[in-house]
Sequence to fold (282 residues):
Amino acid sequence: MAGKQINRSLLKKDAPIGVFDSGVGGLTVAREIIRQIPNEKIIYFGDTARVPYGSKSKETVTRFSEQIVRFLRTFQVKTIVVACNTASACALDALERDIDIPIIDVVKPGAKAAWEATRNGRIGVIGTEATIGSQIYTKYIQNLNRDITIYGKACPLFVPLVEEGLLEDPVTDEIARRYLTELIDIDIDTLILGCTHYPLIRSTLGRIMGEGVRLVNPAYETARELKEMLGQLDLLDEEPLGLGSNRYQFYVSDKAEKFVHFANSIIKYGILSAKAVNIEEY
Fold:
């Protein structure tokens, strides 16, 4: 959750929270942060030029993540939220090693919630190829209880479908049925949405899995853990911002106008703009 050496002199209550993802999926995390700790300011970066991360190597995802963190640090953020399961799986160790402010990922909160939710000890995880291949959810959950069995299923087409806005579409429905059939057949009772894009098709996933399977949304759990962590560090911003305050800032590496349109449909806050930056400069 935090780097080895946290420099407390850098941490100010009224500083923003840095949030990043490979694209639009991390907006589900930003949305939960806005809901649960509404006084906080957010600097969001979506790497829309290089999405998806899930098919890329660990070294490449780590390099991308380090560039983004350097960009977010230019805003004097008080913490970094890695709102991407692939980046959490591939880059978190390197980021924690190098960073001197608190950092939180989406995997540990989701793993803990699934461990608490399961009744039959059979948990499914869907995610990108990189996240599933890393077995990071299996490692975290079995550290809590070795008797739990985790079944991973890579669903690489979900991210491009979400990025294209096909949230309720027959194509998405058909692909989801193909991916999830084997998890239904092995009688899991809990399913981790192991990519922050996936809550955007939660209704489709829930309908296919059925009422007997609890869906765990790591975005929600991450915002809860972030609020707890900021409280422990006495970093919760208790001053509400007035109307017109520049509370939320959005940056992308490509296609800013498309991002704004999609972001407004998710957050419903009235996102007026997003700025494209050359992330390769960082």
Observations:
- Residues 58-73 form the longest helix (16 residues).
